[in-house]
Structures are given as C-alpha cells and as structure tokens.
Amino acid sequence: MATYCSIQPNFIKHNEELVFSAHSTEADNFFLDAYRHLDVAYPKFHKMDGFCQLGFLTALPIVPKAGTYDPQKTGLLLASKSGSYYTDNNYFSRVFTEEGVYYSPAQFTYTLPSAVLGELSIQHNFQGENYFLLQSDNSFDLLKDYAKALFQDQKLDNCLMGWMDYYGPDQFQSTFLWIDRSELHDLDTIILNINKTCFDYGKATVS
Fold it and tell me: Is there a domain that residue 148 lies in?
C-alpha cells in the first residue's frame, strides 16, 4: 500500500499525520531533535551531512511499516535539484581557504549526492536497482517513469522513491513514497496526488 512521508522546516508528516514538530528552524537542531523523538539507535547518523540526515529521517517513518520485503527486489529512486551542493560548497571553500586543514575520505564522500543511496541501502538492506537523479522540477514524474519500467520488467517488487532538497540549515524539503508492484496500474494517480499534496502544484499529468 502506498505510503509517504514529508519533511519541511519544523515538521515531519507521515500520510498527513503529524509525526514530529519543533520550534527550531535550524536543521542541525531540528534533525537531532527528530532523531531523538523517533527513538532511533543509529550512531552513524551523527556523522552524516545534512543532506543524508534528511534522507535518513524521511525514510524512517515509512520503511519499518512496509512489512517484510525481498531486499534484492526492493529499489531506491531519488531525485533532487540541490543535490549535495551545500556540502560541496562548504567542503571545497574550506579546503582552498584554510591552510593545514586536511579532510578524511569519509568527509569527501558526502560531496557526492548519491551518498544518500548508500546510507539508506545499508540501513534498510536495499539491494535492488537504485538511481539518483538531478533535475530542475520538484516532481515525481520522472521517478514515476523509472519505477514503471522497473516494475514492468519485474526487476522490482517494491520501491522507495523520493524527492529531497537541502540548501542549508533553514531551507530543506523532502517527500518519500513507498510503493509496490501491485499498485502499478494506480501509479499515475498516486503520483499526481503526491505532486499536488506535497509540492502544491498541478503540473503532473496522468498518462
């Protein structure tokens, strides 16, 4: 059954149910408070950059409630406009302006937007097809087309797909959706509703 989670500054919603809210507009505090509220024990969360923490928290209310799934037939499709720009900019501005500062490969890893795929795959044991797309429109339309093809080719039984943007501690947004192959015929309508509900626009088309 399709289920989704959406995060914006100050709140996390799961299927329109408020899961967490906070007064802080700073992601550093908001993400940490949400992590504690959701009662998770995953120490690596504290080493992630803001972009990956956003992905981690968006998937958290969804995946445990999805029930059992075949890891090899469960995919991950994500898209973003920002990608890892914030981390890239911060990382390289310090590398070129601060003498004697050295960074480990672990820190460099987060300058790649696809790092969030690895973090989520490790946490939830996803072993199926995975893609990370950079696109200008904040919609699920292109992700929908990828998901359709993978379901029709029977490469996937389940898929976590989502849009996420992180421009800094006070500017971020994400929406993740869990779907399975049985919902293939309803996928156009599901995506149309997600685009309207989470992005407040009606540009999506049902094909």
Answer: yes
The CATH number of residue 161's host domain is 3.40.47.10
Residue 205 maps to a domain: no
Q: How many CB atoms lie within 10 A of CB 46?
A: 9
Give pTM, 2 decimals: 0.87
At residue 64's C-alpha, the angle toward residues 144 and 167, to 5°, is 55
d(CA 138, CA 66) in angstroms, rounded, equals 25
Structure confidence at residue 195 as a pLDDT band (50, 70, 90):
confident
Strand-pair partners of 80: 134
111 neighbors 84 (Cβ within 8 angstroms):
yes
- CA distance between the termini of the chain: 21
Domain carrying residue 16: 3-199
Query: Taking 80 as the threshold, does the pLDDT of residue 105 lie above it?
Result: no
